[in-house]
Q: What sequence folds into this?
């Protein structure tokens, strides 16, 4: 029952997943084609992306506030806001600290995504995209933490690839949820029409 309630709530806020996906892809493309020349630029750029992703997560939580499972996107949104704020306020942190910071954030975010996908696995097919986004995020975080000695340019490219893959996964989920929302709306209209005398 919780899974179905969560699926319906997520379907109604399908657009927030697409917005998050678009932001992630844009960030990835910026990293690929306009690589920062200093760690300060990278930290600030990544911080703004985290803030946007955190705001989107809070929007999802607000959409689901009267349903079960709303606290998952709430925690993810708060984590994004805190991480983005710290990255912008203290951009002078060393490359190693930033790399580890990015890795831990990716693991936490991915864990939330996978956790949210579990109750949906028997309700909608679109949970695959949410789970995929989470797995990509966790694997990226582990790689960054295990190999923190890579050059900052290499890390920038990894972040770009991760952001684009993560964004595509979220857009795939949002598109699937859009279809589910349309189906629910159609069935609701049919049911309302059937009750008319």
A:
């Amino acid at each position: 029952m919780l899974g179905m309630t969560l699926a319906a709530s997520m379907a109604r806020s399908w657009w927030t997943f697409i917005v998050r996906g678009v932001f992630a892809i844009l960030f990835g493309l910026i990293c690929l084609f306009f690589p920062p020349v200093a760690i300060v630029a990278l930290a600030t750029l990544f911080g703004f992306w985290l803030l946007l992703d955190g705001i989107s997560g809070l929007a999802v939580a607000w959409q689901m506030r009267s349903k079960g499972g709303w606290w998952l996107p709430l925690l993810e949104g708060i984590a994004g806001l805190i991480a983005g704020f710290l990255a912008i306020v203290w951009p002078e942190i060393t490359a190693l600290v930033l790399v580890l910071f990015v890795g831990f954030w990716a693991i936490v975010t991915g864990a939330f995504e996978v956790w949210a996908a579990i109750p949906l696995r028997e309700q909608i097919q679109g949970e695959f995209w949410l789970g995929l986004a989470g797995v990509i995020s966790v694997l990226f975080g582990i790689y960054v933490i295990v190999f923190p000695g890579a050059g900052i340019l290499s890390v920038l490219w990894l972040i770009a690839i991760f952001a684009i893959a993560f964004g595509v996964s979220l857009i795939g989920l949002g598109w699937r949820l859009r279809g589910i929302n349309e189906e629910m709306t159609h069935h609701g209209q049919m049911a309302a029409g059937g009750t008319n005398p």
Q: What stands out?
A: The chain has one domain: 2-177.
